[in-house]
Prior knowledge:
The complex is a heterodimer of chains A (99) and B (190). Chain A is built from three helices and two strands. Chain A is elongated, with a radius of gyration of 24 Å. By secondary structure, chain A is mostly helical. Chain B has an eight-stranded antiparallel beta sheet with strand order 3-15-5-11-12-13-8-9, with no helix packed on it. In chain B, strands 4, 6, 7, 10 and 14 form a five-stranded antiparallel beta sheet that branches. In chain B, strands 1-2 form a two-stranded antiparallel sheet. The relative contact order of chain B is 0.32. Strand 1 of chain A pairs parallel with strand 4 of chain B, so a sheet runs across the interface.
Amino acid sequence: MARHHATVNSEGEQINVPFSSEEETARDAEEKTWSDGADARKMAEIRRDRDVLLGNTDWWGASDNGTMSDARIAYRLALRNYPATYTANNSAAWPTVVN
Amino acid sequence: MTATKITPGLITTLAGATGFPAPSGYSLVSTINASSSTTVDISGMESGYDYMINITQWKGSANITFYGYVGVAGPTFRTANYRSHWAEINYSGASGGAQETNRVPISYTAASGDTDEESHFRVELLDPANASVKTQFFNRGATCNSSNNQYSVHAQGKYLTAEANTDFRFYVSSGNIASGIFKVYRRPNV
């Protein structure tokens, strides 16, 4: 179905109002702007997910846990570096969590 | 005050000051069913009423965001001059948020239209058509991202110019609103 505005008329009946040519042009521009920002939005989402995973292991660094193991240090470093290794097709796997 | 009672317990007429409270419950104004709709538009909002829009069985498409605009009769929708904020808590308890100055935020996280990922929202507008006050709005709802992860969403804010916002437009960042039932209610702002 072509672009339209779903609304109701003065009788309360639903009607679908087709876009005018000016609205089509404006909408095309909006959609291009959104599309152009896709990579930035995806990266923001990845950083947020990464921050969650890092936060889940913050307790590893508590002083009463003793020295953090090399495996744990490596895991947290991999998480920090993950956004830089991410590729647009999402082929980079998340680091594997260690015990 | 005088009253006429025909049968026990039933008052059929009242005259004079009753002292009864003004009606305050929401009543249904209209229902719009979105179906591959680029926008869903509400018009004719009247001064003196709060409006509530319950949106159910909403679907978009992958990686889009859900917004709104207030508007004035014509309609002319406002695409700037907002002060608003949205926040979300995702499935693991992580939170995020952002300010919005050019629109009304509804759903922050990219919402998907996949099976079993229907979203629902409740948007409230406080006396939007009152020309002497700035329109204030808030929303709460639940949505999913394209990875089937559930999010709780919350948003609030205002349009920064006092004017009669008789119209409201729902739209998505790209593509169409695949489906959704938009029920518009109102109640006196008393």
